[in-house]
Q: What sequence folds into this?
């Protein structure tokens, strides 16, 4: 039986792809990379084999990473920050009818569970920054900038029920963090303020307690069935 060509899955079956990273966050400079993220729909008959399609693929372009549709939905239902932000990128590159329906489901994935996952990710990244400060006298400033941006995004998501990834009015101050123009103590203070504001927002958030699993599963089943019939 012919082996599955992983890169062909991305080239031939991508339903949604977008630009992520600094360019999507409104924080790009002349030296910024172009990070591509996408979702491919592996043809249903491939799942009838012992050798299943991969859940994710690196490439074929540099800085490109894609998830198979089911894996992407599963991660989004668990409020994975990277996946949720991918769905909300303002820079879509590929958008098939299936991709459009996936994007239209964005609110089905959002819930108060985002507080837990975003916070857990922020804590782990904060620990790495503090290790850098302790061992090297300062943090990796680019990573510090992206952590502050994530904290802003989480706070505003809980406040409004909408996920916005563009840094907007915070761009200049965030770039000052990236360039090491703010003392680490001020960056720490900013993080502490954002964390407190996020905790306060959780008490009054309009987000539902859990994502809409049924709505997402209906989409996945219909999409798999249509693929099988083609």
A:
């Amino acid at each position: 039986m012919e082996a599955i060509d992983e890169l062909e899955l991305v080239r031939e079956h991508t339903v949604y792809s977008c630009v992520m990273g600094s360019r999507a966050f409104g924080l790009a400079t002349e030296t910024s990379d172009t990070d591509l993220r996408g979702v491919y729909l592996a043809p249903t008959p491939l799942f009838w084999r012992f050798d299943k399609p991969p859940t994710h693929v690196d490439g074929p372009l540099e800085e490109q990473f894609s998830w198979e549709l089911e894996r992407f939905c599963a991660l989004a239902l668990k409020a994975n920050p990277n996946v949720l932000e991918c769905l909300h990128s303002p820079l879509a590159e590929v958008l098939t009818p299936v991709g459009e329906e996936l994007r239209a489901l964005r609110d089905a994935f959002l819930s108060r569970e985002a507080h837990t996952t975003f916070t857990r990710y922020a804590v782990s990244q904060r620990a790495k920054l503090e290790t850098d400060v302790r061992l090297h006298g300062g943090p990796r400033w680019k990573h510090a900038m992206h952590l502050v941006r994530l904290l802003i995004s989480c706070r505003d998501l809980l406040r409004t029920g909408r996920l916005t990834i563009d840094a907007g009015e915070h761009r200049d101050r965030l770039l000052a963090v990236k360039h090491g123009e703010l003392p680490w103590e001020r960056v720490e203070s900013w993080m502490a303020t954002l964390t407190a504001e996020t905790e306060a927002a959780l008490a009054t958030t309009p987000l539902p307690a859990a994502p809409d699993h049924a709505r997402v599963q209906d989409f996945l089943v219909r999409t798999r069935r249509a693929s099988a019939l083609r």
